[in-house]
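Recall that a protein's primary structure is simply its ordered list of amino acids. Everything else, from secondary elements to tertiary packing, is in principle encoded there. The following example makes that idea concrete.
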Amino acid sequence: MKMIRMKNNGSALPVTVSMLMLLSFGASASERAGQVSFHDIAAGNGAGISYRRAGSPHRDALFDAIRAQPIFTFADVPLTPEKARGAPGVAIFDYDGDGDLDLYVTNGPGVANSLYSNQLAESGELRFVDVAAAAGVDATDMDSNSLCYGDIDNDGDQDLYVTGAGEPNRLFRNQGDGTFTDITAFSATGAGSRYPAGCSMGDVNGDGLLDIVVANNSATWDHRLSVFQPFGHNAPNQLFLNAGGNRFTDVSATSGVQTLVGLPPGESGRTWATAMVDYDLDGDVDILFGDDQGAVPDAASGGVDRGIIHLLQNDGNGQFTDVSIEAGTNHPGAWMGFAFADFNGDGHLDLFATNGGDYTLQLFPLPMALGAAASRWFLGQADGSFSDPGVGGLVSSVFGWGVIAEDYDNDGDADIMYYGGLDTGPYVDKSNPGVVLRNDGRAGFSYDLAALAGSTNHSRRNPQGVAAGDLDADGFIDVVTVSNFDLPESFPLLQYPILFGSLMDETAYYFPSFTAVGPGEFAPSGLKAVDGTITVEINSADNGNHWASVDLLGTAGLVSGGRSNRDGIGAVVRFTPHGGRPVMYPVTGGASYGSQDSLTVNLGMGRSHKGVLEVLWPGGVHNRFYGLRASERLVLPEIPCSYDADWGSRREYRHCVVTALRELAAANRLDHRLKHRLLASAMRAYRDTRNRDDDSSDTRAPEKRRAHDRRHD
């Protein structure tokens, strides 16, 4: 095969012609089999979206005072404010129950947060109207950061939790009529005046009610001393237990979420990310915290490992133990965003975590080996631990905040998309132009440059929050990102001096906020970033792959024995298309970086037309559904009768299932046809886990049972 050479910092990188064809922005569909692409409908205030992220005036003024100094040195970096332009998050959810997905985006003080109501259901057109003020969630006086949502009272609509920088967080209860009420004081969820970076909802004690975990980054963002000093400026994370009636109890000090390995008693880390997810598939949600090592030496260098991924295992009753060392997630880094899926189809849940990347700190006197700060995936193992395979053929990785794990091309496996940028003080890292990692189904990832080639130039943006959902209802996921500031086209972007022979080298840029005037001395460049923006990147959905989607319906309070919250948050969905490999996604109530995906589970099917769906519900119940069809949109209720439980007889199991289905039908939660399909699937799942021919409780001949199964497959 003919080889050509690409520039690589004075050396050469061999690249095959076929590789260039694959990555070429102008390659034909036949050359890019299965290729889809994204375009930004919010560009130029399109689709009714005119969001601009306002800065945080107090911290912005502190930075302006430093910029006014004639000389800036590395010694001044700890005094620069953190997140001077804020830390916006985004959520995708159907707040008004009209069947399409809406957007909620946070903003700075003095500027309203935005609730963009999707008009697809009303007009058939993908356009948005900002209804935040009318809905009561504008929070104009708030310096809003991260957010998460879920049905905290199981009344059938999603409630919204918004965190504030240096002020109490707020809980908005959905009234079910398109409006919200602020119940922060009543619910006791304000959480004090800290600087949170994320939140997540999940049922930690199995009572069918969603609880809230809050990831606190620091005691203040007025300076960056917490980056350089291990302790003293950090703030502990918090857990609020739902007591029912929209009241919460702070159990942070007694639940184990503040007892973290590697940290002295009473001390906290710098947490950027959190998520509640059932990582060990035992039927209860566990908690992850992504902490930041900053500039503090790690334990191997004589310091302390304060910046690891803390994995807190739930005992099923809401008591947590940090098992990070046993699980192998105790790698020092700057962990900032989480996404979960089964990347290699082995039946274990895997993790992708964003990190500082291999370029970001090159201009600081902080030597770091290639891969040490990689944004990367961790593969779940049968014993509950995670392996760290590195980034493989990608060679290097870039800085990241928000991340999603979704099948963007619907070929039947979970891919990865992540975005980000970092204002370090003297310069802004712009190594991430928007990274799309395409999965080969076995956790082998390749860099898909073509997917975002026709979208907004993210090298000119500083994205923070990232979320995914099918906004135009075409069966393919779309992606929303929000930046805290942007860089005008006239601003210079310089290439990092150290390159690695990676495709990511070509867009590994930084913007010099200050200009070098001598060894370790810098003068202000006079260039200041502008307000951040939102992108709404719509999937071209044109590769012919099939799909299905599933929404979960927890039945606590609806069905006798129902245990799951109404949204099914905390469940894990496993799907196997006919002839394909299994894939698995958890339903999370907040992850990424300060953001939350749609709760609808989008399932790529490739060329398959049917598949088998399995749900592990909070509480440990297993339900299975056969014959999920291409293009089907299914609402799957929890049937609190686990097919693999120790039933006394087939009749006993069937009675449990039939009773649950009758109660759901009486509550107008399913129609006759779905009721029949659910019953048929439940009984087949029961038989498939036993010796069907020896089941004396089923009086039909084995061949008749098999024929019945085939009709419903």
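The longest strand covers residues 461-469. Residues 1-32, 693-702, 708-713 have pLDDT under 50 and may be disordered.
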